[in-house]
Amino acid sequence: MTAASTWGIKTVLYPVSDLATAKRVYTALLGLPPQTDGTYYVGFETEGQHIGLVPGGGPQGMTAPVAYWHVSDIEAKLAEVTAAGATVKEPVRDVGEGRRVATVIDLDGNVLGLLQDR
Q: Rounded to 5 degrees, what are φ and ψ at 114?
């Protein structure tokens, strides 16, 4: 039994080099316009999934897509995965509207995102 529930991957962020082109591609792929459309982030909501485009990998320096596992208690889940062998890449931080995120790296170098909505 774990301290925090995991509800699956519901958010995937993609680093993009050309936001305008990426926005057109993902709009065509998903068949809908973005719900968030800024110069620093473009986000799509579809079928219970959030797809985000992050220009230049954002301040976190993403170089590959990051899948975010939605969890009930981010601190507890972060403690569990680090106790199991993952290392913290980005500690828990608030990204607005009660959403908190963190990332860890597994033994093979994969970046795993954790996300908690309040």
A: -120, 140
Q: Within 13 Å, how many C-alpha atoms sit on residue 85's CB side? A: 5
Identify whether the C-beta of residue 54 lies closer than 8 Å to the C-beta of residue 68. no
> What does pTM read for this prediction?
0.89
Contact 46, 30 (CB under 8 A): yes
Handedness of CA 116, 110, 61, 15 (dihedral sign): negative
What are residue 5's phi and psi, to 5 degrees?
Answer: -75, 150
Mention every residue, 6+ apart, whose C-beta is less than 8 A from residue 36.
42, 43, 52
Q: Report the C-alpha gap between 90 and 114 in whole angstroms.
A: 10
What are the tokens at 75? 């601190």
Burial letters for 92-103: b for 16+ Cβ neighbours within 10 Å, e otherwise?
eeeeeeeebbbb
Encode pLDDT of 9-20 as tens digits.
999 999 999 999
